[in-house]
Amino acid sequence: MSPLLQGLMTILIGVGGCVGYFYASNLILDKVIFPASGPKAGRNINRANAIRPWLFLLPAVLALGLYLVYPVIGSFYRSLFNRDGTEFIWFGNYITMFGDAEFRTSLVNNFLWVLVVPAAATFFGLLIAQLTDRLSWGNIAKSLIFMPMAISFVGASLIWRMVYANNPDIGVINALRVFFGADPVDLLQVAFWNNFFLMVILIWIQTGFAMVILSAALRGIPEETVEAAIIDGANPFQIFFKIKVPQIMGTIVVVWTTITILVLKVFDIVYTMTLGNFGTQILPSYMMSYMFRDDGRATAVAFVIMIIVLPVMVWNIIQARKEMR
Amino acid sequence: MQIAGQSSRLGWAVNISVFLLVFLWLIPTVGLLVSSFRDRDQIVTSGWWQAPFAVDLTFRGRASVDDMVMQNGLFVIEGNIFEDPEVAPSFPEGEGLVQAFGTRGAAPTQFQPGEVAELRRGGTLTVNADGSFRAENTEEFSGRGPRIYILAETPPELTLNNYATVLTGKPADERQAARARGDSTLDMLMDEDGLFINFINTFTVTIPATIIPILIAAFAAYALAWMEFPGRGLLIAAVVGLLVVPLQLALVPLLNLHNQIGIGQSFVGIWLAHTGFGLPLAIYLLRNYMVGLPRDIIESAKVDGATDFQVFTKIVLPLSFPALASFAIFRFLWTWNDLLVAKVFLPATDETKVMTVKIADDLLGSRGGDWDILATAAFVSIAVPLVVFFTMQRYLVRGLLAGSVK
What we know:
The structure holds 2 protein chains of 2 kinds. Chain A is an all-alpha fold. Chain A has 2 domains: 3-78; 99-324, MetI-like (MetI-like fold). Chain A contains 14 helices and no strands. In chain A, helix 9 runs antiparallel to helix 10. Chain A is globular and about 90 Å long. Chain B is an alpha+beta fold. Chain B folds into 3 domains: 1-53, no CATH class; 55-154, no CATH class; 196-404, MetI-like fold (Orthogonal Bundle). In chain B, 56% of the residues lie in helices and 11% in strands. Chain B has helices spanning 8-36, 40-45, 161-168, 172-181, 185-189, 196-226, 232-242, 248-261, 267-291, 295-303, 308-319, 321-337, 340-345, 355-366, 371-391, 393-404; strands at 55-62, 69-71, 74-80, 98-102, 116-118, 124-127, 132-137, 147-154. In chain B, helix 12 runs antiparallel to helix 15, helix 12 packs across helix 16 (393-404) and helix 14 runs antiparallel to helix 15. The longest helix of chain B is centred in the middle third of the chain and has 31 residues, at 196-226. At the A-B interface, helix 1, helix 2, helix 4, helix 5 and helix 6 of A face helix 1, helix 2, helix 6, helix 7 and helix 8 of B.
């Protein structure tokens, strides 16, 4: 059967199954188990209403449990075993991993990514959001800068591989170098700085995201605060840094953390650009180099990523609970 | 609105800097797009920014002995190089401008047009700027005649040929051969060498992986937003926490699980995986939206005797349409662009790969320097997301804002 047909069938079965489940389970609850009639009608309605939320939640809870909660435990458990899972070696994988120079490189690189990418993307996003705020063609400009959001990391990597290409007849950067009389260089092999050339790709993609959200936040600032500042004689820079930025600080933090989380997960860019060579390895791509080869090591790396993300997770939960009160 | 005190000079600075930023942001993509329409030989000899200009390329032809005549005791071959069967295909109008010519492949640009070149095997050759040439020799020309190399300006050429090559996986000559064998266009497209089959696979993965999680999440979001039950706060906190669980963690245990229960690496497996991974954000965003719906409507419906199921399907679902639409667009882009999940949960065979995997694993490895192929393949893979992006941008922005700004 062709995958296309299979896909159509799955949509039908999946969607039909979901709708059928929700409909049928409700029907059974109301008509068969706790019918809202007869001598116990009142009690039955209450009981049915106590159970119904769980009917609504069941598929989601099952899927979340199986696909996100179980893996956290499963991955940790698996990381305590050796390559083929036959021998329990305690933290052996973690110990050999920390002894591996490539792992330490990827840890340092990941730290650089986390430091640079969210900061740069938020900075450019804020800059563009502010600059386009009162511009007649601001919406067109924003939509063009937002565009890379739609492009896959693989597509973006190809786009930038072309920009960085060694051949001055293909790569814009080397063409400029040759134009100004320098020799072309293979940018992806320039030690240390090649990390930043890769980060540029993610910044290029994420700036649009930061811009859209910060632009909405800037629009939400009460007009009076800005007007009051103007009357007091503040110049545009003072208005921006002393009036506007403090008021949208909360949104800036949200944007910053969202991009930080993303940075810790993105393996596509390094994988397509350098495969982790030339000292550009980061944790997610380091993990993929062990995937299918050494599950013990792969899960150990994944768990390290999890530990790095953990503070953000806790902070998110605390924020969410605060809001609900 | 013009802020008082904002000088027009600052206004100019803003206009120019925004223009520069937009320019910087667009340049890389434009380069890829232009390159995908350029001829293979032109890509490597001139940058894409020179695409509208003519390119100097070298060509190889021959002064054929078939045209050899006797003139005043000399053996002479005359003709026009642009009519040569090897050169003519690049010059459909039959004329061009010779920049330089040569008699050896090692030095194809040794002589200026009009100069007299000594041939290695005796005799002389002159090629003029208009392509006409004259070879003279006191003896008969040996073999099939002397080779002529020219450097000629070729007109800028935009072609869809790259797209045909990428989608079928066959260059022009192989396509012709296949057509001669009687293959239809569809046969060629469905061949596993081409990117078209991967394009279809991407669709096959993306659509169920977009619809199913949204459906499941919508019910869960309603329960979390409008139903009272013990443990609700805990569940919401759990969903928020699961938002940031790195996908990497799920790969090994779930692949092993899929293998154990017999799903293995398959489309069913990837649909399930995408459903699971997409749920937290879907539930979180949809709940945030549904909580904001007016309480009166829902409560009066309940007072009138509507059950939760009716309230959900008749009131909340239609009212949540904007949120559902914007999240659907997100899911679509996300699963379309995904590489990691597809790499792990789909088998690594050509007929099941999605486009991102095909490009990252196959094309970049084997065709790493073939920019005609790479640029075109990349553009095929980003075309659909770009269309979705530009047509549905409003929903996309709305969805982003729902998730981040309170």
